[in-house]
C-alpha cells in the first residue's frame, strides 16, 4: 500500500527517497528515467498499432476517412474503459503493468495478421477492426494509472507533476511511433512484419521495466508468470515472423488466385499483376482491379478516342502508368508529344519491362514522342505552364476512393482546364454511372463548376468488375457493368469519333446510346471541392 506523501513547507521541494528505501536496484533518479523511457517506448508501440489498424482497415475495406474515424473513436472510448479497469490492479501495479504489456504486445503484434486473415478467409474485416480497436484501446488505457502508481513508488511528488512527466514521455513516444510507421516500418518491413516487430519491442520494454526495476515488488510466483508470459509472447511473435512470407503467399493466392506473376509494395501502393502465361492479365493497385485484359480495350477506347477527334498535336495523360491510355493516344499519327504524369515510377517500370503488359500496351513508353513525369498530378498541375495541350486525359483511380478525392475536385479540374488550348478537350473517367450515379454526377458537376462545358457518356460491355482483391465485396448484383466518362472543353464538345479510324468495340451509335443511358441516372448534386468533398 502506498503511504500518503509527507507535506513539505511552501517553496521547499519534497525530500527524495533513497533507492534503498524505495526497494529499487538503482537510484531513484535513474529509476524515474527508466520508467519514463518505458512510457516513451510503450506509447510509440501503441500509436503504431493504431496506425496499423487504420492503414489495413482502409486497404481492406476502403474509405480511409471512415476507417480512421472508427478506429480512433473506438480506441479513445476503450482507453477510458481501460483506465477504469486498471483500478483493480492498483494494489499490485508492477505485476499488473507487466501482464498488461505482455497481452498488449501479443494482441497488437498479431492484429494485422489476424485482420488480414479474417478478410481473406472469413470475408469479414469490419468486426475484427472494431474488436482489435477495443482490445488495444483498453490495454493502452490501463497503462497510465499503473505507471502513475509506479512512478510515485520511486519518488514522491505531487500528482500534477507526475502526470506532466508521464504525458510528456507519452506524447514524445507517440510522435516517434507516428513517424516511424510511414517512414521506417512500412517501407522496410511491410504491415505484417512491422506489427510483429512492434509487438516484440513492446514485450521487451514492458518485461524489462517490471522484471528489472520492480522485481522486488513481485512475488516469486509473479516473477515466474511474467517471465513465462513474455517468453511465450516473444516465441509466438517470432514464429509468426518466420511464417509471415508463407502466410502472405497463401493469402495472396486466396485473394488474387493462383496466377500471381508480380507482387510488390512500392513507395506509393501495392502492385499485383496476375494471369496465366498465355491468358489475359489483371493489374491490381492497392487491391483494386485497375486493368483486366478481358475488357480493357473497351474502357481505354471509350476514354481516349472521343477526345482525339479534333487537334491533338500535344496530349497530356494524368495517371495511366500502365501505358494503355497512352497506347490509344499514339494510334493517331498527328500526335507530336505526349506528357504522362504518373506518381508511381514502379508501375511505369512494370509497363516497360513485363512482357505481357508490354504486349498489351504495344510498348507505348518506348515511343520517342512520350515524356514521363513522376509526380502527384495535383501538385504538377499547380506549377505547369499553360495553355499548351490540345487534349488532356485523366485516367486516375475511381472517385469513390478517399485518396483520389482531390483528383476529382473542382480545384483539380480548374487546374486541368487552365492547360487546355482554346479548342482543347478534357476527358475524365468518372466511375460507373449505373451503380454509383451520385459519384458520377458529382464529377460532372465539379467539371462544370470549374468553368468547362460537359458531355457525360458511358460505355457498356464491362466484363471484369471487382470479383477479386479487397473490392471483391462489390461483386454480385451491384457489380458495375459500365464505365462513365465526362468529356469537356471551353465550349461544349461534340461526342463523335474519327470517321477514318477502325475501333475494336466503339462506334458513334454506341456513344450516343451511352450518352442517353447516363441521362436516365441523373441526380441533382453539387460540386466536390477540397474543403467540401462529396464522394
UniProtKB/TrEMBL annotation:
Binding-site residues for spermidine, renumbered to this chain: 300, 322
Catalytic center residues: 395
Main location: membrane
Family indicated by similarity: Belongs to the spermidine/spermine synthase family.
Residues of the PABS domain: 241-490
Database matches in InterPro entries: MFS_trans_sf, PABS, PABS_CS, SAM-dependent_MTases_sf, Spermi_synthase
Protein name as it appears in the record: Polyamine aminopropyltransferase
Enzyme class: transferase
Annotated GO CC locations: plasma membrane
